[in-house]
Amino acid sequence: MAGEVEYRSKFYGRVGLEKDVYSLAVERTRYVMEHHDRVMVMFSGGKDSTAVLNVALEAAHSDPRLSARHLPLRVIFYDEEAIPLETEEYVRRTFARPDIAGEWYCLPVQHRNACSRQSPYWWPWAPEDEAKWCRPMPPEAITHLDGFPVWPPEERMTIPDMNGLFAPLPYSTAMLMGIRAQESLIRARAVTKKLVDNYLIPYKGKTTRGNLTKVYPVYDWRTEDVWAAPKLLGWDYNRAYDLLEMAGVPPHMQRCSPAFGEEPLQKIHTYAQCFPEVWARMAERVPGIGAAQRYALTELYAYRDRPEKPAGMTWPEWLSHYLEKFRPKEAAQVAKRLRYSIGRHYRNTTDPIVYKARHPLTGVSWHFLLTIAMRGDFKGRKQEGGVLTQDDGPLWDRYIAEVAEVGASGTAHQYGHPHEWPADPEALRRRINYVPKEGS
């Protein structure tokens, strides 16, 4: 497995160390087990949580003191209902181990439904939808958790909001999670905020009381590491990935979670191909699923192409057109998200926002903002980007070319720029180390 590399610079670069990623993950987990009263693994049955689970077991077994305190290991599984049968089988095999104390929760937690703007949420195992459930209720299911409201539906919590229910006072609790910096910019940013113990992050959900810490022991693993470990170390794994591999889905895009969210929606067709038993029920589970299956990869859902803005309409007006398609509450959330991105851009530069080319320093473009206006970003996972590499010449070349093109076209007034359009676009090029202003 590759040498350990840490995301610590403002450019989200990787710093090579002498040890391999597996050894360091075990060391981190031992440290966590030594300094917390209780430890629990958040297990989805996916590849990343598989790595975390096996690292935690190795750490606990490596020291008799840790074994006495933390074994059998507490493992939490949120059953999201619309998952492959292979995931259910894998979780059942895992929970049969004598060194694991598994808790299998089937609760109607609030999930995102990106298939419909008018029905933006769904609830797995919702009692009112029992006739539509994608799978029978597993015999291991726990259907009650103190503090979680089942009724009325609008009071049901999201998973992040309810995680604090597993960490009662006065105990300090560590929640081990399969979060990897390679997977997204937001995750890379999460582990660059401090130089020491950057994999430990205080949890701030609704139900937490200051005693819960998120732990990312495999944050620096690459996809290659995640798959090398089961092969080299003989771990069990979810056989759903074998089906995704045979279907030609690249390893970095293989997911076994429900396909109704904003990002997973683009792979919804793989469920019909790889998991037909579950798909037969998924096809009727949430509002809008039929349209999503047909058009998820088209401009209707802001994938690949985007709808062409009507001539004469400004970009802010075009975004407002799509905000009107959401319910008022969700439209307000999306509008707030858009204001944040635009405000962040202008707090850090006076350069204009153009359509296609993201600004090299802030990562903002109207193309990016239109994606948010059309899909929403209720989980906060769409990131502007900006300064992903110090070699920013090509980024500036594309941006400056588009600024010049807009200026020559006479359409600059449509871009909502609060300043005069740059007369000399080449003068905008700044080869500097970018440090975002406080609060951005």
Automatic annotation (TrEMBL):
<feature type="domain" description="Phosphoadenosine phosphosulphate reductase">
    <location>
        <begin position="39"/>
        <end position="241"/>
    </location>
</feature>
<protein>
    <submittedName>
        <fullName>DUF3440 domain-containing protein</fullName>
    </submittedName>
</protein>
<dbReference type="Pfam" id="PF01507">
    <property type="entry name" value="PAPS_reduct"/>
</dbReference>
<dbReference type="Pfam" id="PF11922">
    <property type="entry name" value="DUF3440"/>
</dbReference>
<dbReference type="InterPro" id="IPR021845">
    <property type="entry name" value="DUF3440"/>
</dbReference>
<dbReference type="InterPro" id="IPR014729">
    <property type="entry name" value="Rossmann-like_a/b/a_fold"/>
</dbReference>
<dbReference type="InterPro" id="IPR002500">
    <property type="entry name" value="PAPS_reduct_dom"/>
</dbReference>
